[in-house]
Amino acid sequence: MEVSVKNGEIVLSVSEYIERLNLALGGEAGFVEGEVTEFKASAKWVGFTLKDSQSSVERPPTGGLTATSAVLKCVMHAHMFRRLGVAIEDGMRVKVYGVPRISKGWGSLGLWVESIEPLGEGSLKKAYELLFKKLTLEGLFARKRELPEFISRIGVISSRDGVVLQDLRKNLRRLSLRVNFVHTQVEGAGAVPGILRALDYFNRSGNDYDCVVLIRGGGSLESLQAFNNEEVVRAIYAMPVPVIAGIGHDVDVPLSALVADAMASTPTGVAHIINATWDALALGLPDLTRRIHDGMSDIVYAHKQRVELLQTRMHTYFVQLFRTFDLAAGRLSRARERVGERIRALQEYLARTERLLTFSDPIRNLKLGYSLTYVAGKVLKSKKDARIGDTLETRVSDGLIDSKISNIRMNS
Amino acid sequence: MNKRINIKEKLGKLEEIASWFDKQKEVDVEEGLKKVKEGNALVKELRERLSEVENEFEELKKDLD
What we know:
Chain A is an alpha/beta fold. In chain A, 42% of the residues lie in helices and 25% in strands. Chain B is an all-alpha fold and 65 residues long. Chains A and B meet through helix 9 of A and helix 1 and helix 2 of B.
């Protein structure tokens, strides 16, 4: 123990005394507002000095009056500072929360800071620009992933208190969409952890969603602080699926929107972005329909043609067979005609012959007055075959006449 | 309502019959007649089914218009 009593006085060591002071100071944790100066950051610590912007009059121990600004040394663990996600630079007005403490090593009072919040448009703007520059250099704003076609599974992060969710739902096409909503504060102290929790929830869901939508109505730069927070921006960048931001803003686009893969400034705009992922189908559908219809028409036509063709092939055989019969029948008919003609010719010949025979009949000639004369049984045709005294037998139509040759003469 | 027929299968049978005729050098009228009867029945069935398909398809097209 470094406490000693000398002459009835309690005497403490420096260390003990500072510890006592720190115990007493422990109850003085609170918010302090001031301007940042001498900002320094190392791997382990972040340090800066807060000062009042207005000078106060002070009487220094050396005597006289001095106009000076009140200053307060501030220190913070670097990892805590990084978690805050706020960029700080000299000249910015901030509100810090911390616990006062006297450093044993330095013997000086400092504020152990737990949170820092930029104040006023100027500081906020400065913080925004610093972070924008830093993250731009890292390339966080350059990566833009393509939104998938036909987005239908949507994770939405927003506040249930606003009308943004209704606006989003109202403007989404009536498609079979599945919207999973996670409520979070979007303003105030709970906004950053709330948004980070929601992002983490969807991040862990992996590819269960086609995209994650982060929406919030418009607001001032101050009210949109959570969306300019470095941790939030990095969490959006780390999402496994594309993120669409719909964050209302005035001049400066919130960094959360810049890092998102697509952005709009209203929930309606976000709905249009999601709707547009269905355009390919809406535009391509008529063409696809036409191709299907034409294709089916071709198939039906081709089948009908094939049936007709096969039927023709099958029937051709019999048609040819019948044609052969027809040809044969024709030939037979012609043959019959030729036979008929031949018969007719024969009949005519017979008739002619009959007539000829009729005319040639010796009996008929005998009746007409002609006669046949025989000598010694032979028809007498010349006077050379006759001699005077020969007996002649003459046949007339009704009998025979015998006579003797008495004279033979020449034709006169 | 006509019994749903398998167009592909029936077309295949019709094709077989048509090919049978293509291959015949000697006329077998009795067998040919049998084939023609069978083939004609197939043609009738196929024509009816294809008309049905066509009508059904037209109705489907109207649904989309």
